Write a sequence for this structure.
């Protein structure tokens, strides 16, 4: 994760957990002393967006850029000039949380002028326990669809194997084996995998050839409390 600097775009299919990964990656890097900004471009999913955690991120000194307040519940491609500006002048880490599938990634194509001549890491979040990405061929097709819609190229893979509260240690190991095989097949680097922080003490991290990002869940149903971020 340390090598991820500059502009990092997070993409993936619906239900991949890309927004949760975006939030936790931002927090992880901020705790490491990196200046982090986050742009919420998820204009598709009205439920779990980075903006839902923006107050908690702001308390940590992480700037979250979202469309104007009157458009917060809109599912329209309304982009603030501030977002284009932060792409042209990125901080140490500028995270962009794009929408799910190729539909959500389409908005990235509208920022082509801002991305021009910029070095961009575009990471595909993969949860092998979700429909359409439970096979290697499904993941490759999802990547192809996203690349065509965004007019950008995926440069790395992130494994986010989980079944939310039902996730077991074995699920984590199986998920890692899957994304490692995907990495080998696609010849894309496996940047990191995620593990819920409550499971981390039971995990043998020596089994993994990549870093592990602890997940402190922020996007939870109304009857649950988000993990406290310090």
């Amino acid at each position: 994760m340390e090598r991820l600097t500059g502009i990092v775009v997070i993409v993936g299919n619906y239900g991949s957990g890309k927004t949760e990964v975006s939030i936790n990656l931002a927090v992880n890097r901020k705790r490491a002393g990196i200046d982090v900004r986050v742009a919420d471009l998820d204009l598709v999913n009205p439920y779990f967006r980075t903006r839902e955690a923006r107050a908690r991120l702001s308390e940590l000194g992480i700037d979250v850029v979202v469309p104007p307040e009157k458009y917060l519940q809109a599912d329209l491609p309304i982009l603030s000039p501030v977002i284009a500006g932060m792409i042209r002048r990125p901080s140490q880490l500028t995270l962009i949380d794009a929408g799910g599938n190729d539909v959500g990634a389409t908005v990235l194509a509208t920022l082509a002028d801002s991305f021009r001549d910029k070095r961009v890491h575009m990471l595909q979040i993969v949860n092998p326990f979700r429909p359409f990405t439970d096979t290697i061929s499904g993941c490759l097709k999802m990547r192809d669809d996203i690349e065509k819609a965004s007019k950008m190229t995926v440069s790395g893979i992130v494994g986010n194997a989980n079944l939310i509260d039902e996730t077991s240690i074995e699920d984590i190991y199986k998920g890692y084996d899957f994304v490692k095989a995907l990495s080998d097949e696609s010849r894309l680097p496996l940047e990191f995998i995620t593990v819920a922080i409550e499971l981390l003490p039971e995990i043998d991290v020596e089994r993994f050839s990549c870093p592990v990002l602890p997940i402190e869940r922020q996007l939870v149903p109304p009857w649950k409390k988000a993990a406290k971020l310090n």
Summary: The longest helix spans residues 169-186. The chain has a mean pLDDT of 88.
